[in-house]
Design goal:
2 domains; 414 residues; alpha/beta; globular
Length: 414
């Protein structure tokens, strides 16, 4: 079968790192670390695993960060190469190991891709997994399968950028019949937003600033409203199509700043903050939003998040900030900010309900607390991956919110 893999070739890495600075398409050129290969389907690691035929494999910002070599080398310590990309997914169960009881062949499912203690074969959970914080597992580098935080970053499991991948039965969640494949493939990124919001719930009187109206920023707005938040939500958006979706999902004010100074002026006006100008450098904001979700993770947005949060407020890093440059940490200590990172999803408590964040995502969509299917704007065949990646990295001109690779499960034997 064809699979889009990230290789372990250091010469390819070095060449792509240099040429990628000149031309973006170098990151998916024939000499890059990204290779479309004919590989055998991954085998079931144990009798408690299942095989899944992919219907949609989502293209995530973390995938792009890997392909474009933006990820910190730290992640290589808990990754096994080469790996087939793709952790966002919806598919059909095609094969079950002898001890599988949770699902059956033919079921449409999504998979929680986190490879924590249970998928790794440990009966004794690490302290974090025992608390339900499987996203913080201490054994991502141990156990019955190779290192990897998730399916899509582990060489043994495959990923959803291929027709077939494997998962432990504990990771598999049946998709309610009322949900389309477009909705189901968004369960994973929606869970990311829900997890961040639930761990940093705003008061109804608070002002929340969401930096970035890409898919995670939009889903953060959706998560707040689907869970009943009455906080005032501001969101920054670069493009009109992003602004339209942000308003539909419940943002109160969309900030379309003409330049960085304009953003600061708008936030100051809306929050009653003062803008002070140092002798050199960027402004100091006295006041600002109560809670800021940085859903981009760039050097600029991290710096903006620190500057636009009120004294004593909270900054949540949802976008995958790696090694930002030029970030001034002065506002963090000057204003005693609470800076928190959020990783994926875990087990949550919402009122009397307790379960995994991806279960909650499916539940909220099935109950029509939120309509997300229209956010899937582009579909590509895997063979056209270069066109897909060129399109996704020029989202403004292409109008991309969420792009996916589309597969025919019947062709994979589903």
């Amino acid at each position: 079968m064809l699979a889009l893999q990230f290789t372990d070739s250091l010469p390819r890495y070095g060449l792509t790192k240099v040429l990628g600075r000149i031309r973006r398409r170098a990151y998916w050129a024939s000499w890059s670390c990204l290779q479309l290969r004919d590989v055998p389907p991954p085998s079931l690691p144990a009798s408690s695993w299942v095989r899944i035929a992919t219907r949609y494999g989502g293209i995530c910002g973390s995938d792009l960060g890997t392909i474009m070599l933006h990820q910190s080398p730290v992640m290589s310590a808990i990754t096994s190469l080469p790996f087939t990309l793709g952790h966002e997914n919806v598919g059909i169960v095609t094969e079950c190991g002898a001890s599988v009881t949770a699902v059956r062949p033919g079921q449409r499912v999504v998979v929680n891709p986190v490879l924590s203690c249970e998928p790794r074969g440990f009966s004794d959970r690490c302290p974090n997994c025992a608390r339900g914080e499987t996203n913080l597992c201490l054994r991502f580098h141990e156990g019955a399968i190779s290192a990897g935080t998730m399916i899509g970053f582990c060489r043994d499991t495959g990923g959803s950028w291929s027709p077939l991948f494997v998962a432990h039965q504990s990771q598999v969640l049946p998709v309610p019949d009322v949900l389309s494949d477009e909705e189901a493939v968004l369960a994973e990124p929606f869970a990311v937003a829900l997890h961040a919001v639930l761990r940093h719930w705003p008061d109804d009187t608070a002002t929340v600033l969401v930096l970035g109206a890409g898919i995670i920023g939009l889903l953060t707005v959706a998560a707040l409203r689907a869970l009943g938040s009455k906080a005032r939500i501001l969101i920054t958006a670069r493009y009109p199509f992003q602004a339209k979706e942000a308003e539909r999902l419940g943002a109160d004010i969309v900030l379309r700043a003409r330049d960085p100074d304009d953003l600061y002026r708008q936030v100051a006006r809306l929050t009653g903050a003062a803008i002070l100008h140092p002798l050199i450098g960027r402004p100091l904001v006295q006041g600002g939003a109560d809670l800021v979700f940085d859903c981009v993770g760039s050097s600029r947005t991290v710096d903006d998040a620190f500057r636009l949060t009120r004294a004593g407020g909270t900054v949540v890093l949802v976008g995958l900030a790696s090694t930002p440059h030029g970030v001034d940490w002065t506002p963090v200590w000057l204003h005693e900010l609470h800076v928190c990172g959020e990783m994926a999803y875990a087990h949550e408590q919402v009122g009397n309900w307790r379960g995994h964040t991806m279960e909650l995502a499916l539940k909220l969509m099935a109950e029509r607390k939120v309509e997300l299917g229209s956010l899937v704007t582009h579909r590509f065949d895997l063979k056209n991956y270069r066109t897909a990646l060129a399109t996704v990295t020029q989202k403004g001109s292409a109008g991309v919110i969420k792009a996916v690779f589309a597969f025919d499960p019947a062709a994979a034997g589903a």
